[in-house]
Amino acid sequence: MIQIGEREIGSGSVIAGLAAVAVRALGLPRERIRVEYQSTAEAPFDSGVFGSRTVAVLGRAIEAAAAEARATLAERLGAPGPAILSVEGNRIQVRAGDVRRPLIDLLTPDERGAGALVVVGKHYGRSGAIDERLVRDGTFHGYTDFTGAVHVAEVAVDRATGGIRVVRCAAFQDVGTLLDPSAARAQVEGGVAMGLGTALTEEAIWSEDGRLLNPGLLDYRIPTLGEVPPIEVEFVEGFLGAGPYGAKGLGEPPIVPVPAAVAIALREACGAHTTELPMTAERTARALKLL
Fold first, then answer.
1. Two domains, one topology: 2-137 and 149-287
2. Domain 2-137 is of which CATH architecture?
3. Which of 44, 59, 75, 287 is the most interior residue, by most CB within 10 Å?
4. In the prediction, which pLDDT does 284 show?
5. Residue ranges in the chain whose pLDDT is less than 50
6. What pLDDT sits at residue 3?
7. Separation CA 73–CA 183 (nearest Å)
8. How many CB atoms lie within 10 A of CB 136?
């Protein structure tokens, strides 16, 4: 079981992505891996699910914990490590060198009582632990990777009103190493949908005295399922990142290229050049000199 202090925010990065890392790190089948998230009473502190860091950072912590567990088990076997885990029937077997025993036989009495061998894995990024001095002098690196992508959008433009409809999108996304294809695809599709909202509909409107005038979803429009076009997703592997097994984060990267792709498609379709988001019908009409 993996215990982490973070929560699953709906993207699948915690449940699916971290489980995929554990499968590789421990060599156990997916059905033997359970992720217990928001376990703040048991798990070490972590700073949050943001910045496409979940799999990249927590995944490396899982790698570290798995390596420690396999080294500990090999030491208890008295054989050169790291230990190799496998499942036979309902029991986990541990092998190192020519020695092989059931996992339960390698646990201490306290561990058997708790039902687990407990190890803790931690990982810090390029700058190590966050230090106020590093932030002040500008040497703290708040990022670990550069992520590339190519996005393409096909649009239909109403020349009478300036309305834009995105017909289809394609996303070619750099992932470093693809850990969980299904979860990664869903992450990119969600990112493209968010990018379309940024491009076409989402705009916070403020009064002169600083009040938000459209705080609800009736006025602040995000794309509905019916407004999201077909999305083709292709992954590019090989440009390895700093995450587990060379993986890169996929939270924000699929969002960023979408408005640019839509703006270029708009210009190619009708010659309208706009540099302001969202590209509403009114702004497009002004760019077309209709208003």
1. yes
2. 2-Layer Sandwich (3.30)
3. 59
4. 95
5. none
6. 87
7. 32
8. 9
Q: State the pLDDT at residue 143.
A: 63
Contact in structure between 33 and 179 (CB atoms under 8 Å): no
Residue that the structure tokens 């039902």 belong to: 115
Whether the Cβ atoms of residue 199 and residue 258 lie closer than 8 Å to each other = yes
Give the separation between CA 253 and CA 275, rounded to whole angstroms: 20
Predicted local confidence at residue 122, as pLDDT: 85
Full strand arrangement of the beta sheet holding 91-96 = 84-88, 91-96, 99-102
The CATH number of domain 149-287, selected from 1.10.3660.10, 3.40.50.970, 3.30.365.10, 3.40.1360.10: 3.30.365.10
Residue 1 is predicted with a pLDDT of 87
pLDDT tens digits along 89-126 = 888 999 998 889 999 999 999 999 888 899 988 887 66
pTM of the full predicted structure? 0.84
Q: What pLDDT, on a 0 to 100 scale, did the predictor assign at position 190?
A: 94
Peptide bond connecting 215 to the previous residue in cis, omega within 30 degrees of 0: no
**Every domain of the chain and the residues it spans:** 2-137, 149-287
Q: Which of these, 50, 60, 71, 32, lies nearest to 143 by C-alpha position?
A: 50
